[in-house]
């Protein structure tokens, strides 16, 4: 069971989605839930079906005190690396909250201080804390919606299905059609990437 008793009524959970993808943004969300909030369905987004995530997205947006979402796009990812881009996405998501949190719970083990607000990194926090789990659901659903949108522009990569992750199908499409403006050029897109001409 996820924990939901926070040290303060304005404690934000934050998480990201899309770190390991070859294309598309890294997306983060930050969520502040009511202090005694309970939802038995809420869990790490990776353990939920797509349908369940979509249902929970609506519930979280309705029942949270505040939520914020932010995308960091491939050009920036290539410039500052994926770890820094992931942290930047979480910072931007926190900025998009309508109220500044008093404490921040971060999924993972790396973060940079945000506005001198105290924080704590929790490995696999999306399976331990309700506000991080809520952030993981929003980050995943917003990113998936973005990937479905750009799928319409480049359907040959099947981003609607693979979401930009390095599936065999995605790599074969890169080999066949080359790269798009949505690909992360700093990532190893193909095993023989050095032979690719950009």
Quick structural overview:
Strands 3-2-1-4-5 form a five-stranded mixed beta sheet, with helices on both faces. The protein folds into two domains: about 10-150, Ribonuclease H-like superfamily/Ribonuclease H (Nucleotidyltransferase, domain 5, 2-Layer Sandwich); about 155-190, no CATH class.
How would you characterize the overall build of this protein?
Helix 1 crosses helix 4 (about 130-150) and helix 2 (about 75-80) crosses helix 3 (about 80-95). The protein has a 5-stranded mixed beta sheet with strand order 3-2-1-4-5, sandwiched between helices. The protein is globular. By secondary structure, the chain is an alpha/beta fold. The protein has 2 domains: about 10-150, Ribonuclease H-like superfamily/Ribonuclease H (Nucleotidyltransferase, domain 5); about 155-190, no CATH class. Helices cover about 35% and strands about 15% of the residues. The N and C termini lie far apart (about 50 Å). Residues about 195-198 have low confidence and may be disordered. InterPro entries: RNase_HII (IPR022898), RNase_HII/HIII (IPR001352), RNase_HII/HIII_dom (IPR024567), RNaseH-like_sf (IPR012337), RNaseH_sf (IPR036397). This is Ribonuclease HII. It is found in: Cytoplasm.
Please describe the structure with a list of short key phrases separated by commas or semicolons:
single chain; 198 residues; Nucleotidyltransferase, domain 5; 2 domains; disordered C terminus; RNaseH_sf; five-stranded mixed sheet; cytoplasm; globular; alpha/beta
Give helix and strand order, one letter per element, not per position: EEHEHHEEHHH
The domain tally reads 2
Radius of gyration: 17 Å
Helix- and strand-based class? Answer: alpha/beta
- What is the total tally of β strands? 5
- Largest beta-sheet characterization: 5 strands, mixed
CATH topology of the largest domain: Nucleotidyltransferase, domain 5
Categorize the overall geometry.
globular
Report the average pLDDT across residues.
91
Please tell me the CATH architecture of the largest domain by its name: 2-Layer Sandwich
Which sequence of strands runs across the widest sheet?
Answer: 3-2-1-4-5
Distance between the termini: 48 Å
Share of β-strand residues = 15-25%
Tally of contiguous helical segments:
6
User: CATH class of the largest domain, please?
Assistant: Alpha Beta
According to CATH, the homologous superfamily of the largest domain is: Ribonuclease H-like superfamily/Ribonuclease H
Which residues form runs of ≥5 with pLDDT under 50? 193-198
């Amino acid at each position: 069971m996820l924990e939901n008793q926070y040290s303060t009524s304005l404690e934000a959970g934050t998480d990201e989605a899309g770190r390991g993808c070859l294309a598309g943004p890294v997306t983060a969300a930050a969520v502040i839930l009511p202090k005694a909030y309970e939802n038995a369905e809420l869990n790490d987004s990776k353990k939920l079906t797509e349908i369940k995530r979509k249902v929970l997205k609506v519930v979280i947006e309705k029942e949270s005190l505040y939520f914020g979402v932010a995308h960091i796009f491939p050009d920036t990812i290539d410039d500052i690396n994926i770890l820094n881009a992931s942290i930047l996405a979480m910072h931007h998501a926190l900025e998009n909250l309508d109220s500044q949190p008093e404490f921040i719970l971060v999924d993972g083990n790396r973060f940079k201080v945000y506005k001198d607000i105290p924080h704590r990194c929790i490995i696999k926090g999306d399976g331990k804390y309700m506000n991080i789990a809520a952030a993981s659901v929003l980050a995943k659903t917003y990113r998936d919606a973005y990937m479905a949108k750009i799928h319409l522009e480049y359907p040959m990569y099947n981003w609607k299905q693979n979401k930009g992750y390095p599936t065999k199908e995605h790599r074969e499409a890169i080999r066949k059609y080359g790269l798009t403006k949505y690909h992360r050029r700093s990532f190893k897109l193909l095993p023989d990437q050095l032979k690719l001409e950009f």
